[in-house]
Amino acid sequence: MLIEATCNQVNQEGGYTGMNPAAFRAFVEKIAVKVAFPLDQLVLGGDHLGPNPWKHLAAGEAMRKASEMIDAYASAGFTKLHLDTSMACAGDPQAVPNETIASRAAELAAVSEARVRQSGMQAPSYVIGTEVPVPGGAVEALDHLHITTPADARETVELHRAAFSRLGLDEAFARAIGIVVQPGVEFGNAEVIGYEREAAAELVATLGDIPQFVFEAHSTDYQSQRALCDLVGDGFAILKVGPWLTFALREALYGLSAIAGILVPNAIHEPLPTAMERIMLSSPDHWQKYYPGDARQQHVQRHYSFSDRIRYYWTAPAAQNAVNELMSALQGLTIPRPLMSQHLGHLEPMVASGSLAPQADAIVLGSVTRVLDIYADAINSAPQR
Asked: What's the pLDDT tens digit per position in 197-213?
């Protein structure tokens, strides 16, 4: 299993999770041990590692901090590192030259390589390149996407190869396994653009020119199983998913909150959506600039957007208390199937088949597992290249 942290989530300064890479590793491994998942099958990766958290600084200072970050990731034993220095820092032109992007990525790889040599840890694999839209879902309405051109994909590889070589990192570049491209998939607050094989055919054919690499696709959330299967079959061996999982978590919790209001109305202080609305309004930084429109439109997006920026609030103490109250109120209760059908309809067939127990804890896990199963089924059913 591959689990990744982004540069904004986890870095040497804590990121918005409050964890540095070593702490994140300990956090994930603790869960793995709890659920008896073999640690030797766990791969930790760093996503968009570069100056993005410090792009308001001059390039030199931002890259210094990015170097500290990748050193922390390498020190913590992360073995899949996505080098992304495509963002403009203070003083940079708005569109950073591709040669500069590659050179900065190689500088970060040099830091990582020095750390693993010193520590004797496993040498990491690298992913290069970046997708066109912003990571984590598009902000504006999605009218069209610019699929990465074959020429751009080949140029990304060759510029990085040359930049690594200039720093004596040819052996490290041999461990570059993936290139992030835009295959024409994206999601916004209420829109999803699905994968179309015909539109990406020229890009897919490029893999024949760069046999060292597979494609890595970001923002694959909310794609159909058919689309995911096509992506895998076309050489997108690494599929990133994030908000869809926490969206599924929110769906389950909100459905259970509605059910609790029917079954045990006196056992909860207030509905979970009410508590979350208060929490999000009191600390709007995670959603305000991402959700356009009037007050009603923003309310809907806060709770139901595909971008799922409510995910940033679940770790808040007040949110944890509200969730714990809800789960305690439903503990030991069997959720009647008619209420499952009404409020958690996407999971009711699983209850009917016996694959999901109609208890609150199982329902929350089942909602998230259902999404993961879509990916697993797509991977297992895709033809091998």
From this structure: 999 999 999 999 999 99
How far apart are the C-alpha atoms of 29 and 24, rounded to whole Å?
8
| Of 54, 44, 101, 50, nearest in space to 74 by CA | 44
- The answer for 114, left when phi > 0, alpha when psi is -120 to 50, beta otherwise, is alpha
State the Cα–Cα distance between residues 169 and 117, nearest whole angstrom.
13
Residue 370: partners with Cβ closer than 8 Å, 6 or more residues away: 248, 346, 347, 350
Query: From start to end of 302-356, where are the E strands?
Result: none
CA-to-CA distance for 13 and 69, rounded, in angstroms? 8
Contact 321, 313 (CB under 8 A): no
Beta strand 238-239 with 214-217: parallel, antiparallel or unpaired?
parallel
**Separation of alpha carbons 86 and 132, rounded Å:** 10
- Residues for the chain: how many in total? 385
Rounded CA separation 181/50 (Å): 17
Does position 218 have pLDDT exceeding 80, yes or no?
A: yes
Residue 61: helix, strand or coil by DSSP?
Answer: helix
Classify 18 as helix, strand or coil.
Answer: coil
| Count of other CB atoms within 10 angstroms of residue 220 | 24
Which residue type occupies 383? P
DSSP string, 272-331: HHHHHHHHHHHSGGGTTTT--SSHHHHHHHHHH-TT-GGGGGTTSHHHHHHHHHHHHHHT
pLDDT tens digits for 55-92?
Answer: 999 999 999 999 999 999 999 999 999 999 999 999 99
Give the global pTM: 0.92
Q: What domains sit in the chain, N to C, each tagged with a CATH number?
A: 2-242 (3.20.20.70), 245-378 (1.10.400.20)
CA atoms within 13 A on the CB side of 169: 28
**Does an H or E element contain 30, and which?**
helix 21-34
